[in-house]
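Final report, closing paragraph on structural work. Over the funding period we assembled a curated collection of sequence-structure pairs, and we close with a single example.
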Amino acid sequence: MKKLWGNQPKVLILTALALGITMIGSRSTQPVTETVNLTTPQQLEKKPVIEVEEIAPQDEDAWLNRKRLAKAQVPDNLKVALQSGKPTGNLLRKFPYPFRSMLALTSDIDDTTPEEFSDYHRFLNTKEQTEGGPGLGLDVGDSFWMFMANNQPNHTDSYDHGLDGVMTYFKGTDSTQKHFDAEIKHYWKVGWIDSMHTFGDFSRKDHYDPVFKREYAVAAWDALKQDGINLEVWINHGNEANVDAFGGYDPHRFSAYQAGDNPSSPHYHTDLTVKNGIHFVWNSIGEPQMGWESPLFEIKLRDGQKLWGFHRYTHDLTKTGLDWNWVPREIHRQINTGTLDSLVEHQQYALLAQHFGGYDLRFPFDEKGVQALRLLAQYQDDGKVLVARTTRLLKYEVARKFVQVATAEQGDETWLNVTAIQDPIFGPQPLSIDAVRGLTFYVQNPEKTHLLVDMKPIRPEDYQFNPPDATGKVSIGFKWFKPDYTDYSFTSTRDASAL
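Its predicted structure, as stored:
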């Protein structure tokens, strides 16, 4: 990035993240600003830094205005009015500006080794040179397993690993023996893992020979709690032996085996699972519909608890039956101009089910798949489809549907305070800048609108002023998460002690 020196005017943003200084180039005029990471995530934990960012001359007025808005004190005569929030109605734009759709790639961890995981996430998440060419820099999360109880012989990857090489937290079903716990903890911390594909692979040769029991759930949650891994998304897995599945039980359907939410079953665990933070579940019910007005629906479990279910596109319908396209060599059938244009036209959400590491391939995507994923990245670059990890998409939808705000005016300025996210299932959600990122409001004058979260001002860099969209309206929003193109990958042969 070109730096502005000499006599050219410049404004410096000082964001105190810690001690030490990381110098960053001048701010790009593109909608998204890149930052240069000069330390690893592990070093950042030990040595916080001060981030310094130069603002280009043409952006100075906007920056100074954001700074003015952020530093202004709430007038005393407005404080009472700003604490009485209500639903937003037509004030809220559906998606973060300028996007007209949101999409998540949700991959089940089936048969995935650490080597495979690193290979495909370098292509999906970074800008590095990879086997598929330059990386895409997309925000893609993944899932993981705690245990391996599958007794079916299987060759899992091109590195000649069997099921013992699959990236599980524990080795086999022995909760006293760690396996790839360091890798899983690392990838969760950096965002490459954000969901749980049940407690493990409990598929068996005999589908009616389940080995899962409640003690595995207890051990799993204890270990995750010790590691500070706080999960909110659960994705069901496997054949009828995977009795820890829940959320879709029907005695007359394939899902009759699900026992995780049955209090009278030795496989019961949802009292622990919901208590430990799971708010969203894919309940094993595949769907041929890709786009949804909202991806969420309410599920009532057999133990009386409620949580959010979410739709996942898993297959197409054909004259001969179901055509499951949730494999990497079929991703071009999921992602193409037809499907993406439809999402944009109808302003819909989509969560695409996949199994990126589930096949004996060194690199999961063929030429058609690479082209399809590059097309998706282009739709994001063009401001059409925002690609977000599963947790971010689902939590954004909860915030969008249930946010409450209060507004007040004084003179020619407006104050907008987010007072609550009133989740009807889990109650009021904690308010923070990350909880409201992407929320975008139609206002008369964005440049004279102050944004607050729970009566607290936000940082200048978290403001986003938007020109008119397709409705002809201007808007202001809480800036979406910064893209992170860092290569966080490592293989099982690397020294995990550095983590």
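The chain is about 20% helix and 25% strand. Confidence is low (pLDDT under 50) at residues 1-40, 492-499. We thank the funder for supporting this effort.
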